[in-house]
TrEMBL record:
<protein>
    <recommendedName>
        <fullName>N-lysine methyltransferase SETD6</fullName>
    </recommendedName>
</protein>
<keyword id="KW-0949">S-adenosyl-L-methionine</keyword>
<dbReference type="InterPro" id="IPR015353">
    <property type="entry name" value="Rubisco_LSMT_subst-bd"/>
</dbReference>
<keyword id="KW-0539">Nucleus</keyword>
<keyword id="KW-0808">Transferase</keyword>
<feature type="domain" description="Rubisco LSMT substrate-binding">
    <location>
        <begin position="4"/>
        <end position="121"/>
    </location>
</feature>
<dbReference type="Pfam" id="PF09273">
    <property type="entry name" value="Rubis-subs-bind"/>
</dbReference>
<feature type="compositionally biased region" description="Acidic residues">
    <location>
        <begin position="43"/>
        <end position="53"/>
    </location>
</feature>
<dbReference type="InterPro" id="IPR036464">
    <property type="entry name" value="Rubisco_LSMT_subst-bd_sf"/>
</dbReference>
<dbReference type="GO" id="GO:0032259">
    <property type="term" value="P:methylation"/>
</dbReference>
<keyword id="KW-0489">Methyltransferase</keyword>
<dbReference type="GO" id="GO:0005634">
    <property type="term" value="C:nucleus"/>
</dbReference>
<dbReference type="GO" id="GO:0008168">
    <property type="term" value="F:methyltransferase activity"/>
</dbReference>
<feature type="region of interest" description="Disordered">
    <location>
        <begin position="39"/>
        <end position="59"/>
    </location>
</feature>
């Protein structure tokens, strides 16, 4: 369901891999009985029209059912824990011109990428809180 990389792609305004995330949340929030029934009824095909009509914008994410919100929230926390530093440390480094200029060009670019990723993840935490 998630693809080869095992990750979802989030943007500032919406989930860019919305079909995969929507299906994953749906399945992971099902009870064992619901999953068996869904699978037996070939439910995977039946939902294609429903999935097409629902986009996972930031507004839609904030309206998810509580179990899905909790699952996303916990997943985001685990992802943030995988970073060596937090958002504030990245912000401080970006604001410290002297320290920033000591970084190589590649390190500066990596810093900007990490900072952007963390900001998106923190935004998602607020949406599903």
């Amino acid at each position: 369901m998630v693809g080869e990389e095992g990750a979802f792609v989030l943007g500032w305004d919406e989930v860019l891999t919305e079909e995969e995330l929507s299906m994953t949340l749906k399945v992971l929030c099902m009870s064992e009985e619901e999953f068996k029934e869904y699978k037996e009824q070939d439910g995977w095909e039946d939902d294609s029209e429903e999935e097409e009509n629902s986009t996972l914008s930031n507004e839609a994410l904030s309206r998810l059912k509580t179990p899905c919100k909790k699952l996303l929230y916990d997943s985001v926390l685990l992802t943030l824990e995988s970073y060596r530093s937090d958002l504030k440390a990245e912000q401080d480094l970006l604001n410290n011109k002297e320290a920033y200029e000591k970084l190589s060009r590649r390190e500066q670019q990596a810093l900007h990428v990490r900072y952007g990723q963390k900001r998106i993840l923190h935004q998602l935490l607020e949406l599903v809180r």
